[in-house]
Structure prediction request, 411 residues.
Amino acid sequence: MMAKEEKKAPKLRFNGYTNDWEQVKLEKIATFSKGKGYSKLDLKRKGYPIFLYGQMYTNYRYKIVETSTYAILKEDAVVSNGNEIVIPSSGETSVDIARASWIAQKGIIIGSDLNIIRPTSSVHPLFLALSLSNNQVKYNLAKVAQGNSIVHLYNNNLKKVNIYFPNIVEQNKIGNILNSISNCINLHERKCEELALIKKALLQKLFPKKDEIKPEVRYKNFSDAWEQRKLGDLAEIVRGASPRPISDPKWFDDNSDIGWLRISDVTNQNGRIYYLEQHISKLGQEKTRVITEPHLLLSIAATVGKPLINYIKTGVHDGFLIFLNPKFDLEYMYQWLEMFRPKWNKYGQPGSQVNLNSNLVRKQKIALPSREEQQRISSFLKQLDSLIALHQRKLEKLKQLKKFLLQNMFI
Prediction:
């Protein structure tokens, strides 16, 4: 029986590149050493930039151009020249440990528990870091890791790992496109974080603080004091219901036009429910609460205190409260509950699950403006939510594109 021929080129390549990739042991194209002498205990507010082993797990990146950690330069410190690849020398699993980063900046201290690889001129450091962290080469790396509860990677093992690479021009093209996508991802991540902070600040300004009846910021022509009300006076608050046992397939029907709202749908759609994967059967509908119009709901299990609005017909799981016959603008109350969400923690002990129920929610007080002012506030905040969602969708598409390229541009 003939041995299976090894793949010598990736699935996806730039036009004009058809030659097979070269396969060699890592020791043929690199030199090996280790970081030394530093741990978290050595960190200072100022000093030399330092890259520590733990950063390979807490804030992993393929390319390191800066670090926010500093230390005093010791006489025997290992300092980067800008062409070092670092790989953890210990980790929890063989898959976790099989990752590499290129320290692209000169003058960064390389801490202990890191293997250092310096490639020759035939291999670009970014290409090598990407190769070691993906596909077949990542698998080869994981195979040579040793240990059980804690696994280790030693330079002697790394030297024997097979690496596949094309000519340096093709390497640069691959590295450049992936680096550009990574930069776009970082940009959108920062944009999402900034918008989230802006919204948080606006929520604090547009709603009154505790025991106050006016917010700090208001639209023009609105000057009346807000009215103190209990949530239970503003809507009929009831709990959803679930058929049992919930795993029984008779409760569900893919052909039903009534969805089934579960806790997992809350986080997946960030509180605005436009579609549901699961649908409930006619038999199941008899065991739950079915709502056919948009309603405000509140999660009281798992993601406790998360508000949501349904825009489709659905049966409601018993992990939610439903606000029936509301005397408020749905979007306004959604935004208020989003702002108030962390405060539900007062009903739980430190380290324990928050116990939220309909009685507690009914008794919660809220300062409420006129319906017109509610709508002005909610309209603005919803637009901001749409902008945040737009950047999040772009971010997700970029991550999917990067994942596809990593899976198909390397062997």
